[in-house]
Amino acid sequence: MLGHPKRTLLSLLALAAVLFLGIGATVAWGNPQGQWTPKLGLDLEGGRQIILQPQVGKGQAVNSGQMQQAVDIIRKRVDATGVAEAEVTTLGSDSIVVSIPGDPSEDILNSLAQSSQLAFRAVIATSQITNEQITPTLPTPYTPAPTPTATPTASPTSGATVAPSGGAEAPTSSATSTGANAALPQAYPAATNTPSPTSTATSSPAATPTASATPSGTATSGTTADSSKPKNASDTAWQSQPVAQYWIDTGYVTKGQTYNDLYTAFSCTNTNPAVGPTATQWKEAAASAPLNQPSVGCDPANKYLMGPSEVNGSQISDATYGQKTNSAGQATGEVVVNLSFNSAGAKAFGDVTTRLVSLQSPQNQFAITVDGQVISAPTANEPITNGQAQISGSFTQDSAKTLADQLKFGALPFSFSQVSSEQISPQLGSDQLKWGLIAGLIGLVLVVVYSLLQYRALGLVTVASLGVAALLSYGAVTFLGWANNFRLTMAGVTGLIVAIGITADSFIVYFERVRDEVRIGRPLRAAVQTGWARARRTIVISDAVNFLAAAVLYILSESNVKAFAFTLGLTTIIDLLVVTMFTHPVLTLLSRTKFFGGGHTWSGFDPARLGARTVTYAGRGRVTIADRKAAERKGSDSDTDAVAPAGGNA
């Protein structure tokens, strides 16, 4: 490609055209709609600030370790939307302040406050919900209100399925209390011992939960505890066991009542606080229930009494989302969340699904809950032993991504409620941006002046190259604003300004190499190619070092420093692209002209100014300085041999 400079320039033009046509397409048809200008960060545009307070059980306290864990997880959730330049900090000892640039949607704000504790629980009994209209959504945090207008929210969906995914081997890492989705033990201590499953293997569910007008299974109501101890999480003997102290502390049941009484009292539909706890309050209570004890939950169609959790989010090694594929590898259009368990999770999941296969409905179902909300209750048809599973249902791309990110980055040690949410003004404002741009413009002018004084007409190539680099940088920053929610802050602007010097440095290295080749007697056309071959290595190494430094800074830093590192790395890549696809091809074409190739005084390749004693290349039929020097030496030697000293008398 470099042997054909015009073709290379056309390729660069096509690349730039694709970039800006892509921006135009996002403006015309994008969802969300794009824009022709870069998105600005919190310090330049302002945004929304929310204050979150933890919701903990009765008698529980929040410690600094839990708050710091929550800050780290919320920051990761925000960053999952792109380089959004959000700020997440603690306020006092029991609040977290999240500042997000622009105007984030309520779904994004709600997703930050959810605990996202995932649990797989065996179904013990189920009954159909009647007279309820629920729109399936992911669970959202709720603050109990004194008015009877609150409405419960639900998640996708009673018809969801869980199926084995691929044939990948289960990861070999083991679960720990500090892994993804691990709730800190200080947050919700368990009331009783954890039951253990009786079998060891696995299952591939395909789902349709059963529904009936009355609870399925062998419910035993009453307030007297059954003397028989449950053998596993699916054992219906759990129904007659006394409820954990946690449920008594909520005030929704009394001491001595059983889980069947809790199941009967649990409401999936109530919106009137005057007649008892609302459905939302019940869900919030279920979200904090001990994992090693039974619980009750609802999906849009059914209510479930579930056994203790046997697999939870701390045993997930990865969570992704995408379209489900059939046996032929073709996308079906259904959006699913893909789960990968670690070695402990894979074994536990295999044990559960193997046991469920041999049971009758509804005990052959297991409920997948997130923050107390049942998002799927599939039937186990075969064991799943490879540590891979899919959660499917009425997910959208956005809701599936939200859930996958929450599961991937881990559960918060507790859910949060929003204390306040308000729009905030820019921290710096337009004046600082204006002066920052003026500083960049001054730097650019100084580089241009130096280039013209040092390289004369050749300096125009530097100016044009900087212009191309600026255009591509602007387009890249603008497009990334739509694609990855990248926002330009003052730190990012600083990175762009620093890039002016980095880009100019590449041109100087190249031009000086070419001028060195001219000084030693090469014709300009040959000097351009030879100089490029030698300068290219230096330029690539220099840009590689710059990019490596930017990458390390981006990985290890936070907030504004990360923005600086990102723009520095981006412009380093653009610099390499411009010097390869614009500067070198342009100089190659100029070397073929009479003005530059002939060594004009104002071309920047004037032989006298470069230290040569005569014209190095002046067109067809002219000799180079090397030939002239060789001819002079040969002529000098011939004269010495031909002239002899005169002898004899006068």
Describe the structure.
It is a single chain. It is built from 17 helices and 13 strands. The protein is an alpha+beta fold and 650 residues long. It folds into four domains: 5-34 and 427-606, Multidrug efflux transporter AcrB transmembrane domain (Multidrug efflux transporter AcrB transmembrane fold, Up-down Bundle), CATH 1.20.1640.10; 42-109, Alpha-Beta Plaits; 115-142 and 150-407, Gyrase A, domain 2 (2-Layer Sandwich), CATH 3.30.1360.200; 608-640. The strands form three sheets. A five-stranded antiparallel β-sheet has the order 6-7-4-10-11, with helices on both faces. Strand 6 and strand 7 (302-312) form a beta hairpin. Helix 11 packs across helix 14 and helix 13 packs antiparallel against helix 14. Residues 150-227 have a biased composition (Low complexity). This is Protein translocase subunit SecD. Part of the Sec protein translocase complex. Interacts with the SecYEG preprotein conducting channel. SecDF uses the proton motive force (PMF) to complete protein translocation after the ATP-dependent function of SecA. Residues 458-589 form the SSD domain.
Write a brief structural summary.
The protein is 42% helix and 15% strand. The protein is an alpha+beta fold. The chain has four domains: 5-34 and 427-606, Multidrug efflux transporter AcrB transmembrane domain (Multidrug efflux transporter AcrB transmembrane fold, Up-down Bundle), CATH 1.20.1640.10; 42-109, Alpha-Beta Plaits (2-Layer Sandwich), CATH 3.30.70; 115-142 and 150-407, Gyrase A, domain 2, CATH 3.30.1360.200; 608-640.
